[in-house]
Write a structure and sequence with these properties.
- InterPro entries: Pop1 (IPR039182), Pop1_N (IPR009723).
- There is one protein chain.
- The chain is an alpha+beta fold.
- Helix content is 28%, strand content 22%.
- The protein contains ten helices and twelve strands.
- The longest helix is centred in the middle third of the chain and has 12 residues.
- The chain starts with a helix and ends in a 9-residue tail after the last helix.
- About 13% of the residues have low confidence.
Length: 289
């Protein structure tokens, strides 16, 4: 009886991989993609997850409050140095079309009584970002949608312009629905779903030879050549990856595109913000043919 009990008490061999196998790049990417199937991560998620209590809101996984007492450090950075915030979860809608047609229809969802409008000269040139409150078409001062910020692409000599409107994810569906109704954009453009790039056997051999030069050979996984490459999840927390993200109007020619999570957005606060930008961003040298 004691021998039979000992047999049953034997622990089953753990099926989990060792830490070294779990920390391999391909395994980490697969695990990260599995975790963000329901809630999308920002590109700074790993940094925040180690230092913040994370919350799931508006289809994203965001840092809510720090795990340590860092309020003094944040205040010191805002007053004397520079503090950076990741606002990439804000939604971006892009409008493309003739400038006159854009301004004509956008005037229906805002009012000059509240302050700036899309027609403000300093904002229309593309030099400054503007902010205003949107309303349902021809319903001011009732039925307010919410606050948004916008920026025009500078003129390039053409009558077609590009306008980017940023809003909180809680407002996106209402604002998008109103813009589609105002510009009569009911026909979606073709949905583009990226497919994995296929290479020939000869190209793969050339790539392997280039990668193997000057590097140590790594051990292959148990699957070996049968290992499936990890696919990157597309879409964002407010849109399904298989839904349409661009709409066009046959009457006005206006195109509305959803650029959420395609354009990152950061906010720098503090007296040294300009110095950080000048040290980080380098001007490209223009070459004229």
């Amino acid at each position: 009886k004691q021998a039979e009990k000992a047999v049953h008490q034997k622990k089953e061999q753990s099926k989990t991989k060792c830490r070294k196998a779990r920390r391999r790049h391909i395994n980490l990417v697969a695990e990260f993609n599995r975790r963000q199937r329901k809630n999308i991560w920002l590109e700074t998620h790993i940094w925040h997850a180690k230092r913040f209590h994370m919350v799931k809101k508006w289809g994203y996984c965001l840092g809510d409050s720090p795990t340590e007492k860092s309020y003094r450090a944040c205040y010191r950075a805002m007053t004397k140095h520079c503090l950076l915030q990741d606002l990439s979860y804000y939604c971006c809608l892009e409008l493309t079309g003739k400038e006159n047609e854009l301004l004509k229809q956008l005037a229906r969802i805002c009012s000059i009584d509240t302050g700036l409008t899309f027609e403000e000269a300093c904002c229309l040139s593309g030099r400054f970002e503007g902010s205003l409150y949107l309303y349902r078409a021809d319903r001011y001062p009732e039925d307010m949608l919410g606050p948004v910020t916008f920026i025009w692409k500078p003129r390039d000599g053409s009558e077609n312009r590009q306008l980017w409107i940023w809003m909180h994810p809680a407002l996106k569906q209402d604002v998008l629905r109103e813009l589609k109704a105002v510009f009569q954009c009911s026909e979606p453009e073709e949905i583009y779903i990226p497919e994995p790039i296929t290479t020939t056997i000869q190209e793969e051999k050339q790539i392997d030879v280039v990668l193997s030069l000057g590097k140590k050979r790594k051990k292959e996984d148990k699957e070996g050549e049968k290992a499936v490459p990890v696919k990157k999840i597309i879409g964002d927390g407010t849109r399904d990856p298989f839904q349409s993200y661009s709409w066009i109007s046959q009457s006005t020619g206006i195109v509305i595109s959803d650029r959420t999570m395609e354009i990152l957005r950061y906010r720098l606060i503090g007296p040294l913000s300009h110095s950080v930008l000048t040290e980080t961003l380098k001007a490209a040298s223009l070459q004229t043919v």
